[in-house]
Amino acid sequence: MSVRYAWLKSLARPTAAIGALLVVGWLLVALLSRVLAPHDPLHSMIPLMTPGARGPDGAVFWLGTDALGRDVLSRLIFGARTVVVVATAATLTAYAVGISTGLLAGYFRGRVDTALSFFANVILSFPVLVLYIVIIVALGASAANVVLAVTFGSAPAIFRIVRAITIDLRSRDFIAAAITQGESTWRILLVEILPNSSGALIVDFCLRLGYSAITMGVLGFLGLGLPPPTPDWGGMVNEGRTMAFAFPHLVLFPCLALSSLVLGLSLLADGLRQSAGRMRRVG
Amino acid sequence: MAVATVALEARPILTVEGLTVALPQGADRPLAVDNVSLDLRRGEILCIVGESGSGKSALSGAIMGAPAPGLKVVGGSVRLGEQELTRLSERAWCRIRGRRIAMIFQEPMASLNPVITVGAQIMEVFELHARMSPAERRERALALIRSMQLPEPERIAASYPHQLSGGQCQRVIIAMALAMNPEVLIADEPTTALDVTTQAQVLKLIRELRALNDHAILFITHDFGVVAEIADRIAVMRHGRIVEIGEARHVLTQPEHPYTRELLAAVPSLVPPAIDEQAVVVTPDSSKTVLAVSGLSKSYGPVRAVNEISFDLQRGTTLSIVGESGCGKSSLARLIVRLAEPTGGRVEVNGGCFLSLRGRELRASCRAVQMIFQDPFGSLNPLRTVGAVIERAAVLAGADRRTARARAAELLDRVGLPKEALDRRPAAFSGGQKQRIGIARALAMSPDVLIADESLSALDASSQAQILDLLRKLQSELGLAILLITHDLRVAAQISHRIAVMQGGRIVEIGPAEQVINSPQHPYTRELLESAPGRGLV
After folding, report:
1. The overall pTM is greater than 0.95
2. What 8-state DSSP symbol labels residue B97?
3. Which tens digits make up the pLDDT trace of B370-380?
C-alpha cells in the first residue's frame, strides 16, 4: 500500500473525519477572518449586550458584546487567527529544536547525547506552568515570547521521541549501506532517518498543536499571553471571568472555541495514529 | 538417514482429512492450506517441507486448533485417535494441548519467559496438567532436564533463559513439550535458529527421544538437509497443497513431482564444483590482490571478537569465511568496510591503506569495497523507491543525474529485475528480489570487492540458488572479488575458490575450497562438516 493512500484512508474513519473537519473549519475561519467577522474586533460599541441583541443601527450581535462593547463573535474569529498563527509557529519552532537535537543525540550518541539528554531531563523535571510563567515574566508578554515559552516546554519531549526513533533506525542495515557508500552524515539524517520517523512525528505534531493552543489559553487567562487589545481566546476568558455569572457568554464561547479546536486536533491525531502504525510495520 | 527401527503401528494416531484454511481477503491466494490430507502413526517422524509461504506453518497452527490471526479453518477434519479436534471448544483444547499434542517453535529464546527460571517454567507444565506435590514436580523437572542430555541439571533449572545458549534453551523447550509425554509432537522449524553443530545435536536428541517414547512427530522445515537427517516420511507442500508424500528414502532419491525435484536440485551440494566448471576469470590481473587484511583485531573490553585475522583476496576470486554465530565473522566484515573501528591491524584496498582514511577521503575511496547485507527487510529504506536508492549510489560513485537513471535501469536488468521495479518501494518485493536490489545498489558503486554478510541465509533454497548463480555470473563478467560471510558450508562449497573457517575470533583453517571440504585439517572444520545436515544427500 502506498504511503499516501494510507494517510487518506485514515480520514475515512468517522472520528478522524470529524477531527479533520473541525481543524479545517478553524483554519478557514482564521484565513478568512477579515471576511467572516461582522465587526471590527477592536471597535467599542455598546457594552455587555446579550447574544442575539440588536444594536441601534439594526446590526445583530450574535454572541453579544464584552465589557468594552466589542463584538464577541468578531473577537472569536480574529482570536482564531491569533491561535492558529502563534500556536503553529510555537509548535514548529519546538519541532525544529526537538528534531535537530534529537537526530544529533540519537545518531552520534556518546557525549553529545549525554549532554543533550541531561539538559532535556532538567527542563522536563520542571513543572511546565512554572517554566512558562518564569519565561514570560522575565521577558515580557509578546507573541515571540509565547513562542519561546512553548518551545522550551515542548522541545524536550520531541527531542526524546526523535532520539529514540533515531537510535532504532541507526542500527538498521540501510543506514550501514548508506555509510559504506560514502553518504554524508547530513543526508543520512535528513533523507534516510527523518522521513522514516515522520509517521510518529505527524501524529505527535497534531496533539502538540492542541497543547500549544491550550498553553496559549492558559497564558492568556493568567494575563501572560498576548498583550491587549489583541483578540486572544485565553485573554477573553480572563476579561470575562469576573462577570461570568451575570454574562456567561463572555466565558462560554471562547472556551467552546478552544475546546473544539483541541478536540479536532486530538481526533485527527488519533486517526493518523492508525495509519502511522501501519507505516511503522512496513518499516 | 534416519533408520526406522521403531515398529510402526498400523492405525494412525493423528489423521488430517481435507483440511482447508482460508487466508484473509486480499492475500495473494484464497487458501493458506488447500484440502490437505495426511496421517501420522506412533513412533513416526513425518517431515513437512516447503518454502516460505507454502502454508506449512498455517497447517500446524490449524492442527493445534490455534490458527494464526486472520486465518480460518473452513473445512476438513483433524482427528486425534478417534476424537475430532476441529470443533472442540477452547476449554476442551486446554486438556489436549500440552497433554496429548505438544508444540516446539522456531525461536527458543522467544518461547521462554525471560524473567522466570527455566526449572520453574517446566514445573508450571506439571502444575497445569497434573496433580503433584511441589517436591514431585521438582523431581520430575530435574529428571526431564537430565533426559535432555543437559549438563548439571540443578544449575540449568535455576538458570534464566538468557544464561543458557540457544541450543540449551531449545532442549528446555523440548523438555516442556515432552513433560506430559504427549502422543503427538509438532515441531515447527525447531532447529532453524541454531548453529549447525547444535542443530546436529538437537536432531540426534529428537531421534533418540522418539525411539525411547514412541512419539509421533510432525516436523516442519524448509531444509532438505534436515529432512534427510530425520524423516521417516516426507510431505512436500507448495501453495497450500501437498504435492508429494511418501517414504523418505523414496522421495529423496526418486522424487516424482517436478517441484520436489526442483527443491532437491536447489540444495547446494557439499562437493565443490569441479575446477574447470568454476570459470576462473583468466584476465592478466587475476593474480592482483585487491584486498589484503593483516593482523586485524577488535576487542570489546576483555573479549577479543576478532583476533589477528590475516588473509588476502584476488580479483575475480571468492573467499568464504565460515563459522558459527558469535565467531566474529560479521564483526570482521564490519571492520573491513569501516562500520566499526578495529583495535589493531591493517586493511589494504588496491594496495592503499584503507584504515587511515578519514571523513572526506574515506567517502571518496569507500566505493571500492561494498557490502550486501543479511536482512533483506532491513537493508532497504522502506520509504524510498528502488530507483531512487540505486540512482543515489550511482551519483555517489560519480555519475550525473541523467546517466544515473540509465545506470539504475541497466543494473536492475543485470540482477534480473524488470525496469518497472525502479518506481516501486521495497515492500513490493520478495526477500530474494530485495537481495537482488541490494546487489544492484552495491554494484552501482562499481566496487572491486563485494562483501556478502550472510546475504543468503534469510532466503529459501531456490532463491538462494538463484542468487548464488547471479553472484557467480557477476564475478565472471566484472571480475569482482567476493568475500562471502556465511554459516553454511554448503553455500561456501558452491561458490568459493578458497574457504576460511573461523572460531572464537580466529581463522583456524584457510585453504582452497576442495582441500578444506575434502581433507579438513583442523578438528573444528571436521566437526562442522560432520554436522552439516543431510550428508547422505550430497
Report:
1. no
2. B
3. 999 988 888 99
